[in-house]
Specification:
With about 120 residues, this protein is mainly alpha-helical. It is built from six helices and two strands, in the order ααααβααβ. A two-stranded parallel sheet has the order 1-2. α1 packs antiparallel against α2, α2 packs antiparallel against α3 and α5 runs antiparallel to α6. The longest helix has 21 residues. It is globular. The protein starts with a helix and ends with a strand.
């Protein structure tokens, strides 16, 4: 199980890094998945990810219950809704359209309920 979690974590880190450069590939969910996998399988990899100069502060703040920056919330919601609406438009099954809408509403509520970390700038 440990090897599987480390493998999933490494793949998630790679996808998260790609997501930083590719517009439709999300970064944060992959890094959160990687962090969760590493937390259960490798203290060394988990600490390395939490101490990363680029992503470490955001992961640490989220994992420690301090939330995410307002800019991150706005960006996440602002990118999610257009892509979900487009997906709902492209899918022709009403049940799937409703499911996509419920997922988007759920994620929006979750993000809005998270604490907002103070801006460093």
């Amino acid at each position: 199980m440990r090897i599987l979690l480390i493998t999933i974590g490494c793949i998630s880190v790679a996808l998260g890094i790609l997501g930083a450069f590719l517009p439709l590939l999300p970064t944060t969910p992959f890094l959160l998945l990687a962090s969760a996998c590493f937390a259960r399988s490798s203290t060394r990899l988990h600490n390395r990810l939490r101490n990363d100069p680029t992503f470490g502060k955001f992961l640490s703040d989220y994992e420690d219950g301090r939330g995410i920056p307002l800019r991150g919330k706005i960006l996440a919601i602002g990118m999610m809704w257009p892509s979900m609406l487009y997906s709902m438009y492209r899918v022709r099954f009403l049940a799937l359209q409703i499911l996509l809408a419920l997922i988007a509403i759920g994620v929006t509520i979750y993000l809005l309920r998270l604490p907002t970390t103070p801006s460093n700038k």
